[in-house]
Amino acid sequence: MKAALIREVESVKKIRIEEAQLPELSSEHHVMVNIGAVGICGSDLHGFYDPKSMARIPGLIMGHEAAGVVTEVGAAVTRVKVGDRVAVDPQVICGECAQCKKGYYSVCDNKKIIGSNLKGFMNGCMAEFAVVTEKQCFLLPESLSLEEGAMVEPVSNAIHVLNRVKVNMGDTIVVIGAGTLGLCIMQAAKLTGTGRVIVTDLSEKKLALAKALGADIVIKADEDPVARILSLTDGLGADIVIEAVGIGATYKQAIAMVRKRGSIMFFGATHKEVSLELIPILHKELHLIGCTGAETECPVAIDFIASGKINVKPLISHRFTLDDTQEAFETMANPENDAVKVMLIP
Ligand SMILES: [Zn+2]
Ligand SMILES: [Zn+2]
Question: Options 3.40.50.80, 3.40.50.2300, 3.40.50.720, 3.40.1130.10; which CATH number does 165-290 get?
């Protein structure tokens, strides 16, 4: 099969299109999926361009936001059949550890992610075919395209972020960052009954998209968003701030713009470490809530996309064939392109 692999060329990571071996169904619960669409995630971009990153290493097939058609199933598979169109949940969970037993699947002790080497090497979906377990497959309704199916992963993550915090009617929620996740989180936040959802970003184009998709207020990130949020909340600060960028500057903004006893959702992770001032966290008695992956939100995400409650089509800003994966990464990496979701069509 054709696959996009990370290769090291003169000590720089490059993407090469190669004829790779078709993966095998090594368990009777395995399913072969002919990939129809796979998105490039910010984590792919950062891992690929960071020479020191161990999350995206040479030899790996990336891709953890995917959908496709089932072409083969193991003997014990009951969830899907050949010909089914499915979204793929990239999380491989054990189902047996203490966390899984409590239903805390996103923090499974033995969790692995396909298309990543972060928790153990697992090839992903930037290829014609991928083998996943049946539990990772979620049926797509007729009305959804495979491209929309490939957005189920980011949307389910976005819903999970909102499920991790208690939202009260009338709350002011700030979403820092209008990338794919920020725009999905903004739309999920609007569904909670919150009062206002405010989005900050540097890109005017992305802010315009946020506004078109329902953000109540958008703020340019270089126009003192902390002062703007404070003035919009009578000096009190926002009830909930969701960080979807992942750098020190924006985490600092989050701490400065949240109200006393407010919540900050730690979701963005561009850098491995950020340095934050302790005193405001202590003296404002803040809730800092970490978020990683979805738990049981995939079917909800599919429902919300199918019913139009969350609109993902306008988020797909660029499309490339698998042959042009390297160009797709370069396009996404250049801020001048205002890329939101770059989709590969294998
Ligand atoms: Zn991702
Ligand atoms: Zn587990």
Answer: 3.40.50.720
| One-letter amino acid of 277 | E
Residue with tokens 């989180």: 185
Structure tokens at 167: 């939202």
Looking at this predicted complex, what is its ipTM?
0.96
> Which ligand gives the minimal distance to the CA of 295?
2
Residues 6+ apart with CB under 8 A from 48: 6, 13, 15, 56, 62, 329
**Ligand 2 centre and the CA of 92: distance in Å?**
9
Residue 81 Cα to ligand 2 middle (Å): 25
What is the average per-residue pLDDT within 305-322? 98
DSSP, collapsed to helix, strand or coil, labels residue 157 as helix
111 Cα to the center of ligand 2, angstroms: 6
Report how far ligand 2's centroid is from the alpha carbon of 106 (Å). 9
